[in-house]
Amino acid sequence: MPHLHADVAAVTDRVIDRSRQRRRAYLDLIAHEREHGDHRPRLGCANLAHGYAGTDEQRDAMRSGTAMNIGIVTAYNDMLSAHATYYRYPEQMKIWALEAGATAQVAGGVPAMCDGITQGYDGMELSLFSRDTIALSTAVALSHAMFEGAALLGICDKIVPGLLMGALRFGHLPMVMIPGGPMHTGIANKEKARVRELYAEGLATREELLDSEIAAYHGKGTCTFYGTANSNQMMMEAMGLHLPAAAFVNPGTKLRQELTRAAVHRLTEIGWAGNDYRPIGHVVDERAVVNAAVALLATGGSTNHLIHLPAIARAAGILIDWEDFDRLSKVVPLLARVYPNGAADVNGFEEAGGPPFVIRELLRGGYLHGDVLTVMGDGLDAYARKPFMDGDRLAWADLPDAPGDDSIVRKVDAPFSPEGGFRILEGNLGRACIKVSAVERDRWVIEAPARVFTDQAAVQAAFKAGELDRDVVVVVRYQGPRANGMPELHKLTPPLGVLQNRGFRVALVTDGRMSGASGKVPCAIHLSPEALGGGPIARLRDGDVIRLDAEAGVLSALVDPEEWGAREAAEAPPPPAGTGRELFALMRTGCSTAEEGGSAMLAHAGL
Length: 607
Known about the structure:
14 strands, Glucose Oxidase, domain 1, DiOHA_6PGluconate_deHydtase_CS, 4-stranded parallel beta sheet
């Protein structure tokens, strides 16, 4: 195996050194839970009877105490295409567990909301904190001490991070993440974007836009663009938490079913009492977290994971920050172009080689830790192979040396770019991040007057009124986690794209989030400190010239320093209310910064 790249090794050492005290405390905690915590043999008879009462065919096996009992934590609902696929999984998994001499029960469900539905509406302000809610729900599900392992059923934006944040507090248990796969390809992403921009200009009707969107999002499975949900799947592969190459196999296929069956069987093999015990708290170590970051950067993945991966890591006693991402991005090559960073969707990515090809090439280049613990075995080599059906038997094969389509996936010695698509920006406005993998190089530096807003709707109104038809830096503030839950601002993508298409120099600066589908317009996002509480973005005024320089890593208001220091913050909007937002006030008040993971739960827990 090639030597680990020196810069990847240096970042890993930095993470290990920074995390040493917290990681030691975490490992001590899960060791104590294994040896002295609650689990089935220690429960009283009445407690056990309650736990067995809901099942018939498995009761005898459970009562014997010799069979592993798997807790299924599911994000199933049939409003979300990605999670509708999980409908029959639990009943199938119970059969597959019995095949392996184990039992399984649905331990609990977690909420799964869809940013695609709530984009631009009040419900989006619950989105980030749904992740904490999912983590808490996962903890409740696993708190009954009835399980020797767990299967985590979730795919999308906040669901995978939330499941892991909760599950890692039960790090003494072996666990497997079980995906459901992407929907089949609908209309071309380029056509979808074209109709959106036409509608933004008033050149397409609502009916035409709806027809286009339904043609894109048309069936069960994850959305097919490479946003946060599918970036989740890439990271789970690189962390060794899936069965190898399970990420992008379509739902409803024999291969998809057999991968899930094999995941259940594998979970019984790495269980509590076996000879191959692999608790999730040991699988998710510092090297696995760095591997996830590398895989994200090498594929141009979602900026949302600059919040989610630090939060996942903290749940395991590991501290990773944006500087680590920035250092990695400067050396990790860009090996994939998947929409919105290219023309292909994730089905095209999978056909061209997908996660196994990327992982193999990153291993060849020394960019991944290959010697990690995974649910499949020791080392990442298994994740560089492709599953297939050999008759009725699931098997894995080596990949061809060349990608299926080098406009989608490249070898490590011929990348799309010698570096990843992420930068830190710093200056008198604070610290932000920017995804540049889909931004043309001549747009990496934007200097223009600001137009300041406090919500998306006002930006859209100004766009429709022609007020933004010029070089402009659109500023949207009071969008941070403490202000309103840090909603994504994805509805700004079409109008900003239109302005850029018209030849204007355009950028976005915000303390909010931008979707994992953000693309060609330069966006300085996650700006910290946020406006609420006195972050410098609150001092900006219309007409202030802002310089966004992704080459030099600068984000500054070009205002006289004396005047800048004397300015007061603009008045904050009232606290959110309606659509249940008032119920999340505690989470907003106690939330950590975006760089620390944007989590009230972790902040209150001292993690």
